[in-house]
Amino acid sequence: MTTIDSRVDAYIAKSADFAQPILEHLRAVVHAACPEVEETIKWGFPHFMYKGMMCSMASFKAHCALNFWKAELLMAYEANREAMGQFGRIASLKDLPSKKVLTAYIKQAMKLNDDGVAAPARAKPAEARALTIPDELAAALKQAPAARRHFDAFSPSKQRDYAEWIAEAKTEATRNRRLEQAIEWIAEGKSRNWKYEKC
Predict the structure, then answer these.
(1) With contact defined as beta carbons under 8 Å apart, do 55 and 30 qualify?
(2) Domain ranges of the chain
(3) What is the model's pLDDT at position 80?
(4) Rg (CA), the chain
(5) What's the first-to-final CA gap in the chain, in angstroms?
(6) Helix-then-strand count for the chain, H and E
(7) Tell me, what's the pLDDT at 75?
């Protein structure tokens, strides 16, 4: 029996206009292929459970993502660093495989879970990436001692999230806006993606 989670409805409703039809389509395909699927929210975005983790979907500012938990066993793919998931940046329904192809992946994922096949262990990087703090962020943190204390207490990955967000800004105006927002959030002890950490 299909299990609908109202938090998934809320997640879709608060997603950007372009993302809503993509998320609704993915949800419908998963439910059609796997009537016993259960919906939940993990790590702030929708997951579909069938005898364990099966797949998930997420929406971002300009794209969506679809992720299969055991993708390495379902398909040949190289990790896409531009987007979470195996299908790259999904900006419209045209960016998705056909319903038939998606259904086949879902059926394969179900079989793996039916058979109790574990997800392959993911190799850890040989060495951690160096953390580079942009000069603007370092200067702003120096002027805000409360933010500096929180930032220093963050894990390297949380520090990197802020550093990359500032560094990737294309214009000075965007960089300044992000910097101001970052200092405000950091002073409150919030990570860059704090909005998605709680349901």
Answers:
(1) yes
(2) 6-114, 135-196
(3) 43
(4) 19
(5) 24
(6) 8, 4
(7) 73
Distances (CA, A) of 42 to 8, 48, 135, 137, 199: 11, 10, 35, 31, 8
Distances (CA, A) of 136 to 20, 47, 143, 171: 36, 37, 11, 13
* Residue carrying structure tokens 């040949």: 76
151 token code pair: 């930032």
Burial class of 46 by CB neighbour count within 10 A (0 to 12, 13 to 18, 19+):
buried
Q: Structure tokens of 142?
A: 């120096």
Question: How much is the average pLDDT of 108-137?
Answer: 80
| Cα angle 89-69-25, degrees, rounded to a multiple of 5 | 50
- For residues 126 and 142, give the distance between their C-alpha atoms in angstroms, rounded to a whole number: 32
Residue 62 amino acid letter: A
* Sole residue written with tokens 């419908």: 28
Tell me yes or no: is domain 6-114 CATH 1.25.10: no
Structure tokens at 168: 């990737």
- CA dist 159 and 192 (Å) reads 8
Give me the residue label for tokens 């299969």. Answer: 68
Distances (CA, A) of 52 to 27, 30, 82: 17, 15, 27
Write a three-state SS string for 70-130.
CHHHHCCCCCCCCCCCCCCCECCHHHCCCHHHHHHHHHHHHHHHHCCCCCCCCCCCCCCCC
Lowest mean pLDDT: which of 91-95, 104-108, 149-153, 169-173? Answer: 169-173
